[in-house]
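Re-run requested by the PI after the first attempt was lost when the workstation crashed. Everything re-entered from the original request form. Ligand of interest: heme C.
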Amino acid sequence: MKKLVITSIIALLGLAPAMSTMASPQDDLKKFRSYFFKKFPGVKLQEFADGIYGIDKGRRIEWEAMEEFPPYEPGVEIGKELFEKYNVGKCFKNGGIGIRQNYPWFNKKTGKIHTLEADIMTCLKKNGVDTKKAKIGYKKGKLAAISSYMAWTSRGKKLNVVIPSDDRAMDIYNRGKRHFYAKRGQLNMSCADCHMYYSGSMARGNLLSPGLGQVTHFPVYRKKWEFAGGGNPALAGFGTIQRRYGGCNKQVRAKPLKAKGKQHPEYVALEYFHTFMSNGIKVNAPGIRQ
Ligand code: HEC
C-alpha cells in the first residue's frame, strides 16, 4: 500500500509540470489576458500597448508630451535610408513593408524561429554588406533602426504570431514560457513576478508595466540609451526587445545571455512566447521610453 501511494505521488509529481506546459498556446493566451483585465479593470486591450503609460494617467500625460516631438523620428528616417541603401525590401514579403506583426515566425523547413532582427541580419549578409566591418549587431544601432522603420510601417496592424501544431514549434514556445515564469538571479525573481504579479506597483522608483502588450512598441527609443556608448544619438537610442531582456535579467542580478554572432536561442524562445501573448494588439513601435 505504502509503495503504491509513493509511486502515485511520484507519478503525480512527474506529470504536473508536463501537464502545465501542455496547455495549448490559445488557452495560455486567454488566461494571460484575463489576468490583466482583472488586475487593471477599465484598461482596454489596445491600451496595454502603451506599457506604464496605458495604466497610469499621470505618466500618460508626460508621455503624450514626449510624443508631440517624437525623439525617435530622426532615427526612423535613418532606418529608412539604410533599408533602401542595403536593399532590405528585396528579402521580404511585400517589400518588407507592413509585416512586423507576423514576427517571430516558425520555419517549417528548418524547424527554427525567425525574429525580424535575425531576418534583417541574414538579408544584409546576403546583399553583401560586411556587417562586421560596419559594426552591425542585433540589439541596437543600425539594425535596430532598420527594424524600427519596418515596425513603423506596420503600425496599426495586429500582432499575429502563429504557433503551428508542430512539436518543434511547441518546444520552443514552451521553452520561452518557462523562461517567463522561472525565477532567476540573486533576487530569485521571474519576469512574471515583476510584470504580472507586481505590475502596476513600484520597484525601486519604477512603475512596473504589465507583461501584456510589452512587445508591440519594440524596438523602443530610450533617452537613457541616447548618449550611452557614443555614436549618433539618433541611432544609439534604439534597442530591440532582446536588448531589454538582457536589461531585465540584470535587474534581478542574473547575467544577460550572450551568443556570439547570433541571437541567444533562449531569448528567441522567450520572444516567441512573449509576442504570442500579445496577439491581437496593434503594433505601435517604436515606442518612447525613459
Ligand atoms: C525585478 C523586477 C523585474 C524583473 C524580474 C523583470 N523586469 Fe522587465 N522591467 C522592469 C522595470 C523596472 C522596467 C521598466 C519599467 C517598465 O516599463 O515596466 C522593465 C521593463 C521591461 C520591458 C519594457 C516595457 C516597455 O513598455 O518598454 C520589457 C519588455 C520587460 N521589462 C520584459 C521583461 C522580461 C521578459 C523579463 C524576464 C526575463 C523581465 N522583464 C523581468 C523590472 C523587471
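Saved to the shared folder this time. Confidence is low (pLDDT under 50) at residues 9-19.
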